[in-house]
Amino acid sequence: MKIVLGVCGSIAAYKTYDLLRSLIKNGHQVRVVLTQKAQSLVHAQMFRYLGADDVWCDQREWQGNEHEIGHIQLARWADQLVLCPLTANTMGLMAHGLSPNLLTSLFLAFERYKPILAFKAMNTQMLTNPLVQENEEKLTSLLPNLFIHPSSFGKLACQEQGQGKLPTIEEIVALIESTSLTRKNKRILITTGATIAPLDPVRYLTNPSSGMTGFYLAKDYLKMGFQVTVIAGKNATTELNNLINHPHFKLTRVVSTEDMYQEVLQEFPHCDIYLSPAAISDISFKSSTQKMKKNQIKSSLAIEAAPDILASVLKLKHHQIIIGFAAETDLTEEQLMTKWRNKPCDLLVGTRVDNGLIKENENETQGFGTDQANYLFLNKKGEYKSMALNKGELAGVIASEVQL
Fold it and tell me: CB burial class (10 A; 0-12, 13-18, 19+) of residue 282?
């Protein structure tokens, strides 16, 4: 993606060095525009050293030939305009259609079919000033392609605690990579991460699933314009939290398989595609409210079957497309076919897993906690496909093949 990063004169401007590095690492092309105040806080040459395609400031606006007008050239080149950090001053100029510098001229020239993302950073009193709030409301009401991200709470440059802090770089990148002006009136439901089976207030059974597959799936479907709901295990990746301010994303965290089951039953009737990469515990304990003492521990524990969520949603299926996931220590085509006959999904994705804790397999973790894995796909036509993918690539393959 081609991104113009517009940097305004906030103390938080120094964080855009890390933002640039993250965007370039993820394969994006970035050109930087600095306001005059920003140039006193960050340096154009540093952005060049860090890999920016180009760096622009007011002085360059008319330095090209007569057919190269800076703000027009940049507006045509970019797929997305990112204003970070956005100051109260620049917001006010934007709200009143004023363009005294390159960045505000670029803002006015930016095509309405391309997204503009803004990340505020300012003192709490400035942020909550009625004039600043009025400017923000005016901008978002007039420009449907503009999204102004809520600021975070924390210690500000003025040493005060309050709202107005720039969001984390990870949150900014996640929003940049998942924003689209495309709108599809369809809903995606994703379960991800591990569920927990408590034994007593101290002990529990779970697995090392990270939930990253669900995170990448959510990003890809958001980018395609879908409404996305994720039901995640309590300890699933915190990367999911980076999407919580996305206007088309909803996250619910749960503990047990029963908790996830109840949430899925509520959400499933409203979804169009259901994806289930969650590593769900298929057993539950008759848990105790008090810690089990050593003399109470026997050679076996009373267990019962936890709800089979995938089997349940297949019974409830009406119009939905259902993608199931199977995690096995010894994955074969025959084994995947057997699972598909019991749970005939539109697509079944199998992967070999191992937590690496059993002595003979020690330090040979597969599937869990690793980015690369071998996947076996089985569709409803009975066709197999085997692919070695990282979790981001896996999500991309599924999102490109499973659409409405």
Answer: middle
